[in-house]
Amino acid sequence: MNHPLARALRGAGIDAVDVAARLGVDPKTVQRWMTGRQPYPRHREALVALTGWSPHDLWPELARPADPATLADEVRIVYPHRSAVPADAWAGLLSRAEHEVAILAYSALFLAENVAVTDLLREKARAGVRVRIALGDPAGKHVATRGDEERIGAGMSARIRTALVGFGPLAEEPGAALGLHDTVLYNSICRADDELLVTSHIYGRPGAHAPVLHLKGSRVDGMVATYLASFERVWSVTKPAIV
């Protein structure tokens, strides 16, 4: 018998009968273990203690803990469209932020009109959380194009101006910043530290009809990092909003 367990037991001077007596099992069961059958977890722990070998030395086929460097970002939930996201999910996400909140959108009007969200953002800013909101420039060419694509024309700019009124009080908080951008909006992003709700926009359809991903970051080069880098690039070209 050349199975690692058999070698480990021989090295420890323990035979199958000894193991059976100590673990309260039949010697034939131990013989099966020594030829490759895997014991139950409680018996594996006992065999590790008896032999001094590690679990993976005794049973190389055991699944190994994932290396943090190889972990993929977690896709927690995929919503078919933004209107399917529970209303309290946005505030719930933002309430978990301890260091950073970032919102990228054209209007994010559904958030700006939610008093619970705007009050929460002010509280976060006062508590030292960095809060940044990047909305579309109402006079921007890309905002105008998006309005045409959605067949609402100047309605897109009007939505942004309304959102600026809702988010306006945030500008009074030292830890918050409200900016305007004129970039193509491929995705809207709502960030709370390493958690994101990402709305993946679709040509000609309003944001409420677009799919939403709830992501949790776990590595420096994963999906979440890609979206966060995108936010930073947009933020670098924003101008302060005047409200």
Describe the structure using short key phrases.
single chain, alpha+beta, 2 domains, 8-stranded mixed β-sheet, DNA binding, XRE family transcriptional regulator, Lambda_DNA-bd_dom_sf
Explain briefly what this protein structure is.
The chain is an alpha+beta fold. It is built from eleven helices and eight strands.
Notes on the structure:
By secondary structure, this protein is α+β, with helices and mostly antiparallel strands. The protein has 2 domains: 4-58, 434 Repressor (Amino-terminal Domain), CATH 1.10.260; 69-240, Endonuclease, Chain A. Helices cover 41% and strands 18% of the residues. The protein has an 8-stranded mixed β-sheet with strand order 1-7-6-5-2-3-4-8, sandwiched between helices. Helix 2 (16-23) crosses helix 3 (27-34) and helix 6 (87-95) packs parallel to helix 8 (115-126). It starts with a helix and ends with a strand. The model has no long low-confidence stretch (mean pLDDT 90).
